[in-house]
Write a structure and sequence with these properties.
Layout: E1 11-12, E2 15-18, E3 21-22, H1 23-30, E4 35-38, H2 40-53, E5 58-63, H3 70-77, E6 82-85, H4 88-95, E7 104-106, H5 113-122, E8 125-128, H6 131-144, E9 148-155, E10 163-166, E11 176-177, H7 181-186, E12 193-199, E13 203-206, H8 209-226, E14 236-238, H9 256-274, E15 279-284, H10 286-289, E16 293-305, E17 308-313, E18 337-339, E19 349-354, E20 363-370, E21 378-381, E22 403-406
Parallel strand pairs: 4-22, 5-6, 5-15, 6-7, 7-8, 8-9, 9-11, 9-12, 12-14, 14-15, 17-19
Antiparallel strand pairs: 1-2, 2-3, 4-16, 10-13, 16-17, 16-21, 18-21, 19-20
The structure holds pyridoxal-5'-phosphate (PLP).
Pyridoxal-5'-phosphate (PLP) binds at residues 63, 65-66, 84, 107, 201, 204-205, 241, 283-287, 386.
């Protein structure tokens, strides 16, 4: 069923609704198509589901790069415990929310002296990614006369099976190789550093609970093995995340329950007895927001070429690169798609939905079964709440940047 329309449940008179508003009405409110719409209630429900499944003392951090819309961050600040940021602007937007600076962590390779200065001045936790970065943070701390709040990002000596994107294990630009950690920890002694603990992020977009459980167990063991060499008590253990969401009809949603049970046991039996002061953090991006967003486009043209019907919409890969299959995917699979103003009509035609860019890569739905989309209909792409607008080449072909609304 290539044209499946995801689990999105809001409907009114045959129309898809976002935040209770029918999409055609929302398009009028926004001022036109294409646009992204994020449903605040769905985000709230998703965070609540994660909280219910994970042990109560696990802190939840939102990885801002998944969707950095400032209004969404404000909404999220009332739901999660902290933010993980990856640039100075993400950090500024995170600091504009009521989340305290100490609950913001700044990860990522290649942080500049200017970015590090802003982070140390703000009092966010700098996740140290290299030895040169450590030297820069020491100098920054001296220049500002404040201790830098830091954690060491560790590149683990294991890989996680089933991750769509691997960020740990083997050679990596992220973090310090685990075998070098004791030596590097020795360099963090001194008044320049307010040492918090460790961060390990091994991979992304994983739909296998057993792999994630194993990764969390191995991460906890890895971190415990370094505690003796730490310059002070370990007060922060960021176990990473990597919780995936289903993007195609072949994907099964991740089971949270086994992850929660595994974490409860890890916390009680392994981490807590040895690191009584540690805040234990799980950081999630797409899992919290990915399924709460849609990308809404309008049909501009319909044409038949040598027997194949093309539906051309006013959006494309310049806004939603991932749906075109060009955001690191090995095999292109259709994202869930629907005619948003005619949700109750039966699928009676197989069409190929393409964007308005002059490239064959701009493919949004390949041979999808839809209810005969006509010019003017709204084509909605689901799973668009994460890595959509800001992960797409918006300047490519110089079309206007679409609106984003949180409803
Ligand atoms: C990107 C990133 C995340 C979020 O990944 P998702 O797949 O969106 O959950 C979490 N932590 C770090 C360090 C990241 O770089």
């Amino acid at each position: 069923m290539p044209g499946r329309s995801s689990g999105w449940s809001g409907r009114h008179d045959g129309s898809l609704t976002v935040g209770g508003i029918p999409v055609e009405r929302l398009a009028a409110r926004v001022g036109g198509t294409p646009f992204f719409a994020y449903d605040r209630e769905l985000i709230g429900r998703r965070v609540a589901a994660v909280r219910a499944a994970l042990p109560g003392e696990i802190e939840l951090s939102y990885a801002v790069k998944a969707n950095p819309m400032p209004a969404l961050l404000q909404h999220m600040s009332g739901l999660v415990d902290g933010f993980d940021v990856a640039s100075a602007l993400e950090m500024r937007h995170a600091l504009d929310t009521p989340v305290p600076p100490g609950r913001v962590s700044f990860a990522g390779p290649g942080k500049t002296v200017e970015e590090l200065t802003q982070a140390v001045a703000a009092g966010v936790t700098v996740e140290l990614e290299s030895e040169l970065e450590i030297a820069r943070v020491r100098a920054t701390s001296r220049a500002l006369g404040v201790p830098a709040r830091v954690a060491l990002r560790v590149n683990p000596d294991f890989t996680v099976r089933g991750s769509g994107m691997r960020l740990g294990g083997g050679p990596q630009q992220f973090g310090v190789d685990s075998e070098r950690v004791p030596e590097v920890l020795a360099s963090l002694a001194g008044a320049e550093f307010d040492f918090q603990g460790f961060h390990v992020f091994a991979g992304s977009q994983n739909l296998h609970a057993d792999s994630l459980c194993e990764a969390q167990r191995r991460t906890a063991e890895l971190v415990l093995g370094f505690a003796w060499a730490a310059p002070g008590p370990v007060r922060y253990v960021n176990l990473g995340g990597g919780f995936g969401i289903p993007y195609s009809h072949r994907d099964r949603p991740l089971a949270l329950e086994p992850i929660g049970e595994n974490l409860a046991e890890l916390v009680d039996r392994v981490i807590r007895p040895r690191l009584p002061e540690a805040r234990i953090v799980v950081e999630l991006g797409r899992y919290l927001v990915g399924e709460a967003g849609v990308y809404v486009t309008r049909v501009v043209d319909r044409k038949v070429s040598r027997g194949k019907t093309f539906v051309v919409v006013d959006g494309g890969l310049h806004h939603q690169l991932a749906a075109s299959g060009n955001f690191g995917q090995v095999i292109r699979r259709n994202y869930p798609i629907a005619v948003g103003n005619r949700m109750d009509d039966p699928a009676e035609e197989t069409v190929t939905v393409v964007g308005c860019l002059c490239t064959p890569l701009d493919l949004l739905g390949d041979d999808v079964a839809l209810p005969m989309p006509e010019v003017g209909d709204l084509i909605v792409l689901f799973q668009a709440g994460a890595y959509g607008l800001t992960a797409s080449p918006t300047a490519f072909l110089s079309h206007p940047t679409p609106a984003e609304v949180l409803v």
